[in-house]
Specification:
- The chain is mainly alpha-helical and 126 residues long.
- The protein has a domain of 80 residues.
- Helix content is 50%, strand content 0%.
- It is built from 4 helices and no strands.
- Helix 2 packs antiparallel against helix 3.
- The chain is globular and about 60 Å long.
């Protein structure tokens, strides 16, 4: 009899997976401390986007565990925060800054989740 050796996650149908930290695959593990950034599931307006960006900036300024380049990423997050603070923010500029930020924080689950929530909100609100 052949054994099914699934070392990943299978989600089918309408299943969803939500996690603040997740390690997947053979030998996968999480390193570092958990982050204090909360990940809003749905940001409803631009003010919530601004507050979420503020929380991301603060976490990066504090030297988020697992990131070697937190000061540089904080500068990117601050640029996104300034753009979002405008009366009429540019969706293209904000999306570009958030893409760059996501590339840098991807290995820290809580920060990646927070940035992803902001990205989603920007794509739907602007």
């Amino acid at each position: 009899m052949k054994q099914n050796r699934n070392y990943g996650i299978q989600v089918s149908g309408s299943g969803q997976l939500h996690a603040s930290q997740l390690a997947v695959g053979k030998g996968a593990r999480l390193e570092g401390n958990t982050s204090n950034v909360t990940t809003p599931s749905t940001l409803k307006d631009l003010d919530e986007v601004r507050r979420a960006l503020g929380a991301i900036v603060e976490q990066l300024r504090a030297g988020a565990p697992g990131l070697d380049d937190a000061p540089a990423l904080a500068a990117v997050a601050e640029s996104a925060q300034r753009e979002a603070g405008k009366a009429k923010p540019s969706k293209a500029i904000l999306a570009g800054l958030l893409d760059a930020l996501m590339a840098g924080v991807a290995k820290v689950a809580a920060l990646a989740g927070a940035v992803e929530a902001v990205q989603h909100a920007v794509s739907t609100l602007l």
